[in-house]
Every structure is written in C-alpha cells, then in structure tokens.
Amino acid sequence: QKEVEQDPGPLSVPEGAIVSLNCTYSNSAFQYFMWYRQYSRKGPELLMYTYSSGNKEDGRFTAQVDKSSKYISLFIRDSQPSDSATYLCAMSAGNQFYFGTGTSLTVIP
Amino acid sequence: DGGITQSPKYLFRKEGQNVTLSCEQNLNHDAMYWYRQDPGQGLRLIYYSQIVNDFQKGDIAEGYSVSREKKESFPLTVTSAQKNPTAFYLCAGGIRGTQPQHFGDGTRLSIL
C-alpha cells in the first residue's frame, strides 16, 4: 500500500465551479500536510499547508485535514481557467516527505 | 528574486556520459532535496542534504551522486550507471525538519 493515494483524474469542470481534490494516507505519524500546484513544465508551487487537523482558508482555496479518517482535501471556489494545473498533495513525518501522484485539473471557460 | 534556481532547463545526455544538473538557492535553507518526476509516478526522492558536507540517499539513489560543499548549492550528477535517466528533475529546499519545501522549475533530461 502506498503511503499517499491520490486520484490522478483527469478532472474537468466549467469555470465558476467548486472543485474538490482529495488524498488519503496510511501513516498516522504525518503531521504537516501540503498542497502544491504544478503547471506544465514548471516546478510545484506551494499553495497551502496545515499542521495537524483542521481547516485553513486562503482566498478561494480551503485545505481540510481529517486525521481520524486519514483524509485531506483541497477546495477551490469560483474556479478559473488559470487554475488548470496538476495538484499534488504532500505530507511529512520527521524528515521524510511523501507526495501524491497528482490530480490533473482543467477549468473550461 | 529569492528562490530555487535550476539549470539548465533542458539537457541531453549521450550514452556513457555523466551530466550534472545545477541547483542554487538564496533562501538560506538548511535542507535541500533532489526528486525525479515521471508521468504517473509522482515525485521520487533521489538524495537529500540537511547540512553542508552531509547528504543521505533517498529511495532511488542508484546511478546518481551529489555534493553539498556550500549551503547555497546542491548539484546532482546523473552517471552513466543510471540506465533510464530520461525524466524531469526537481530540486527543492526547506527549513530543516518537516516544514514545506519550495521547488525550482526543474531540468528535463533526455537521451540522445
């Protein structure tokens, strides 16, 4: 079983839709949870990070962590064509980082 | 402009040749990392360094080597022993520990 599981998609939504991206994990020692956005031929860009359980909001983006279910989510409100990218979840325990394989998102104008 | 700078953006390797990918940072991060990204496989850790003159192997270190002579620099050498080097290579930096990493824009390596 992989440490982190992420549905690869692809996910296609109309502009203005609410997008939900999710990851599950197996290691209860994970403490930091991150979401990265990666445009084609670019490096991942840190979008959000949270420590332990709870919600964190930043503009149109909301990150949720449910440690009891070992489940994290990223919500994008009022999605824009510029949100079209691959979204990677990541988690860390100690000095080890684990990444999901990424979900490809296309927002159609 | 602060950040992680990788060069070159594209690199071609001939059979039997070693090539070196550059990674420089001006964020004063202690930790630096090298990842390989292949389609459908996510990021796989090659090497990481928590401090100058020290580094550890990641999950797929065979066929790669690194050095960390300066805090700002963490070059990766892809040796001829790496039989499948075609991939997108990403360098990252972070505060030592579990804090999030920040990535460069990658080097795409291909075989001639």
3D architecture notes:
The complex is a heterodimer of chains A (109) and B (112). Chain A is mainly beta and 109 residues long. In chain A, a hairpin with a 2-residue loop joins strand 6 and strand 7. The mean pLDDT of chain A is 93. Helices cover 0% and strands 52% of the residues of chain B. Chain B contains no helices and 11 strands. Chain B is globular and about 35 Å long. Chain B starts with a strand and ends with a strand. The mean pLDDT of chain B is 92. Classes of the chains: A mainly beta (109), B mainly beta (112). Chains A and B meet through strand 4, strand 5 and strand 9 of A and strand 5 and strand 10 of B.
Notable features of this structure?
heterodimer; A: 109 residues; mainly beta; 6-stranded mixed β-sheet; 5-stranded antiparallel β-sheet; 11 strands; 59% strand; B: 112 residues; 7-stranded mixed β-sheet; 4-stranded antiparallel β-sheet; globular
Task: Give a short synopsis of this structure.
The complex is a heterodimer of chains A (109) and B (112). By secondary structure, chain A is mostly beta strands.
Secondary structure elements and their pairing?
The complex is a heterodimer of chains A (109) and B (112).
Chain A: E1 4-6, E2 11-14, E3 19-25, E4 32-38, E5 45-51, E6 54-58, E7 61-66, E8 71-76, E9 85-93, E10 96-99, E11 103-108
Parallel strand pairs in A: 2-11
Antiparallel strand pairs in A: 1-3, 3-8, 4-5, 4-9, 6-7, 7-8, 9-10, 9-11
Chain B: E1 4-7, E2 10-13, E3 19-25, E4 31-38, E5 42-51, E6 54-57, E7 64-66, E8 76-78, E9 87-94, E10 102-103, E11 107-111
Parallel strand pairs in B: 2-11
Antiparallel strand pairs in B: 1-3, 3-8, 4-5, 4-9, 5-6, 7-8, 9-10, 9-11
